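Supplementary Note 3. Input sequence used for the single-chain structure prediction.
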Amino acid sequence: MTKVLAITGCMGSGKSTLIRQLEEMIPGSRALFEDHYQRMTHMTLDQLKDWKDRGMDIGELDLNGFDLAIREIRESSHLGHKNRRIKILILESQFGRVHPKLCDLVDYQLWIDTPLDLCLARKLLQIGTAELENPDGLSYMEHIHSWCEVYLHSTASLLRKQFEIVSVASDAVVVNDSSLAKLIEASLGVIQEQALACLGLDGNWLDP
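The predicted structure, written as discrete structure tokens, is reproduced below.
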């Protein structure tokens, strides 16, 4: 059965960048991104406020089939690149095993600990670029204004809750407050020292 490594962290923490690097470095791995499935980021300000007022139940967040895609790969003989079976499925996820639909699917979970000011700066830099959707066709400043309004009303509270519950539910924490190279080095070190058995890897797992 395919093993699942979940990479979690706040928006702008470096999850996607790290995962793409790990996919290239870990033999038999494949990346799967929660952002390609979930609908949370498409909620209106009123919907976010209502959800916040109800207690911010993570289980209410619609994964839109993300969990089903994981199960299909995890429980089948799904083939990856060059017709090799996928040994490690690397997930990009906001909540990982904290979400009820993912709790029994994750074998090992990393939390990327990034200062929130860095996360916020990275997301603001993405606004107006192809990396961040702008379906309403807003101008650069209109997009910033809209995004900051949502951030102040809901996103900031969500990030605090995410840190409180997801970081402690993770098997290990890696710090991303400097370079990507150091983040990759720290993540590979954690896998080498702690996660080999959980992920079904041996001591020569980085060898081609």
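The longest strand covers residues 3-9. Residues 140-166 form the longest helix (27 residues).
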